[in-house]
């Protein structure tokens, strides 16, 4: 059985869709999967059970990326095609069952919208498939027998970013309760991400630099060894939650009602003001610290 799975360009949305794939892997163990996604999310699927290939959709003018996808898929007879982008491309392919999710944003948790495409209730939680090399990479980078707290100071636009100068007083609150803990600073590839993370790396004592050049599954393995992830609403926040790591999301200019982290142990704090239009500067250190310490106190240390 061959399944075409068309998912998101952005990392966060792609992570949220992994629960659907996990459901299909479990219920259709002999299925072979072709996953189409954006370049940022492509590495997320490299260890997917039953994976045949990942088709990377580089956005092109006049929507020509959809034509490229059609050319890559038209010669295959698909038993099932699932399109989470709401496009028309699967109607132009030979396919048995077609599942097409309506495109665009709408109120409510994105995870629930995805689950409705397969009529699943409750929605399956996101997951990440790791291999031995991913776990070895994380083990080589991170010390053992030390509480590790991952911090994510970056995001894909400035309105989502909590002021970087607040991570030092936040760390002082956390370190007072967990004096042996070490911060793990996580960020994506590229100079812009590095520039956003640099002030936090520079000011936090004993900070471990875990950003910039690791694959998505290596980053997930790093998260899996941490006691907590605390950071902005971003793809990395969703990735941390998918690993089962206790995850605290920081929201202001984005809506927690749509994109709250989804995982076994998650929480979020929201800046005061209109939902989705509250400045992140309004989110004070004490509020974040209290939420982080509460999540730490109420969750067991995850196993690597």
Brief summary of the model shown:
The chain has 304 residues and is α/β, with parallel strands linked by helices. It is 34% helix and 18% strand. The chain folds into two domains: 2-117, Glycogen Phosphorylase B (Rossmann fold); 133-297, 3-Layer(aba) Sandwich (Rossmann fold).
Keywords:
alpha/beta; Rossmann fold; 2 domains; 6-stranded parallel beta sheet; 5-stranded parallel beta sheet; 11 strands
What does this structure look like?
- It is a single chain.
- This protein has helices spanning 11-27, 64-73, 110-117, 132-141, 167-177, 191-203, 216-224, 235-242, 256-259, 285-297, and strands at residues 2-6, 32-37, 51-56, 78-83, 95-100, 148-152, 182-185, 208-209, 228-232, 247-251, 266-270.
- With 304 residues, the chain is an alpha/beta fold.
- It has 2 domains: 2-117, Glycogen Phosphorylase B (Rossmann fold), CATH 3.40.50; 133-297, Glycogen Phosphorylase B (Rossmann fold), CATH 3.40.50.
- The strands form 2 sheets. A 6-stranded parallel sheet has the order 8-7-6-9-10-11, sandwiched between helices. Strands 3-2-1-4-5 form a 5-stranded parallel sheet, with no helix packed on it.
- Strand 7 (182-185), helix 6 (191-203) and strand 8 form a beta-alpha-beta unit.
- Helix 1 runs parallel beside helix 3 (110-117), helix 4 crosses helix 7 and helix 5 runs parallel beside helix 10 (285-297).
- The longest helix is centred in the N-terminal third of the chain and has 17 residues, at 11-27.
- The radius of gyration is 20 Å and the shape is globular.
- The mean pLDDT is 95.
């Amino acid at each position: 059985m061959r399944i075409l799975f068309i998912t998101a360009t952005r990392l966060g949305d792609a992570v949220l869709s992994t629960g659907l794939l996990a459901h299909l892997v479990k219920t259709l163990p002999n299925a072979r999967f072709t996953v189409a996604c954006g370049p940022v999310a492509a590495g997320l699927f490299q260890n997917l059970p039953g994976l045949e290939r990942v088709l990377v959709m580089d956005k092109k003018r006049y929507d020509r990326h959809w034509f490229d996808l059609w050319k890559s898929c038209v010669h295959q007879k698909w038993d099932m095609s699932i399109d989470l982008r709401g496009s028309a491309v699967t109607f132009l392919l030979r396919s048995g069952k077609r599942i097409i999710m309506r495109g665009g944003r709408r109120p409510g948790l994105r995870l629930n919208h995805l689950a409705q495409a397969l009529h699943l209730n409750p929605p399956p939680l996101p997951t990440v498939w790791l291999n031995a090399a991913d776990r070895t990479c994380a083990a080589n980078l991170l010390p053992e027998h030390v509480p590790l707290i991952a911090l994510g100071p970056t995001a894909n636009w400035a309105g989502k970013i909590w002021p970087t100068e607040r991570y030092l007083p936040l760390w002082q609150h956390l370190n007072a309760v967990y004096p042996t803990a070490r911060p793990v600073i996580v960020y994506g590839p590229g100079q812009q991400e590095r520039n956003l993370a640099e002030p936090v790396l520079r000011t936090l004592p004993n900070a471990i630099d875990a950003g910039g050049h690791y694959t998505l599954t290596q980053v997930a393995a790093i998260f899996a060894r941490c006691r907590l992830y605390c950071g902005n609403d971003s793809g990395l926040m969703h990735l941390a939650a998918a690993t089962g790591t206790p995850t605290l999301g920081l929201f202001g200019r984005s809506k927690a009602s749509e994109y709250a982290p989804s995982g076994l142990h998650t929480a979020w704090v929201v800046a005061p003001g209109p939902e989705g239009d509250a400045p992140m500067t309004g989110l004070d250190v004490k509020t974040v610290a209290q939420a982080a310490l509460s999540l730490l106190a109420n969750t067991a240390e995850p196993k690597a």
